[in-house]
C-alpha cells in the first residue's frame, strides 16, 4: 500500500480504486439505500444488517491497456552511419515527428507509422563534406503488449536527402531505400506514452559526379526516444 496525495491521484487515474494494480487494498463500504448505519444490535426493518467494517483486503485490478487508434508525437535521437565509396562516417543529432494508427487483437498490436526527421549528420572526407539534412520512413509495426508495455518490430520504406559540398559547389540527391528496427513503448496514461526505438536505414546509392565516384549510398543507425499522444 503506498501513501501520499500524488500517488493517490496517479493510482485513481490508472485503476480507479485508489490502489496500485496488483497491490492489496480495502474496498469501500458497499452501497446501501439506507446510508451509514451504526454498529451494534441491528435495528428493525430492511436496514437491519449494516456493515460494521470494510470488506477484507483484496487485490487491486490490473487495467486493460488499449493501444488501438490514431496517435502522433515527437522524437529526439542520434544518427550515425557510413557513406559508401568514400570512407565518410556521417553522425549527428536527429529529431522530428511521427504519426500512425494501431489495431489491437488481444495482446497482438499491428499498425503503420510514418515519420519525418531533420538531421545534422555529416562528415568530411578528402576535400568533400557529405551531409544528410533530412530523411523519413513509412513502416508497418507489429508486436505484443503486456498491460501498458508494447514490444514491437518495424519494417518499411526509407527516403532521404544526401548533400555533397566541394569548393563552394553543392550537389544533392534523393535516396530511396528501406528500414527495419525494434522498439519498446510504455503507456503512462490512457492517452500519453513514451518510447525508445532503434532503426537501421539503408539508403540506396545515387550518382555524385563531384566525388568522382560512380555512386554513393548511406547506411545508418538511429537510436531515439519519443513521446506519443493517442487520440
What shape does the CA trace take? elongated
Taken together, the total number of domains comes to: 2
* Helix/strand order, N-terminal first: HEEEEEEEEEEE
CATH topology of the largest domain: Porin
How many DSSP E strands? 11
Widest β-sheet, arrangement of strands = 3-4-5-7-8-9-10-11
- Report helical residue fraction: under 10%
Summarize model confidence as the mean pLDDT: 82
Radius of gyration: 28 Å
CATH class of the largest domain reads Mainly Beta
- List segments where confidence is low: pLDDT < 50 over at least 5 consecutive residues: 1-27
Cα end-to-end separation: 32 Å
- Biggest sheet, open or closed, and with what strands and sense? 8 strands, antiparallel, barrel
What proportion of the residues form beta strands (DSSP E)? over 45%
CATH architecture of the largest domain: Beta Barrel
Highlighted features:
231 residues; mainly beta; 2 domains; 1 helix; 5% helix; disordered N terminus
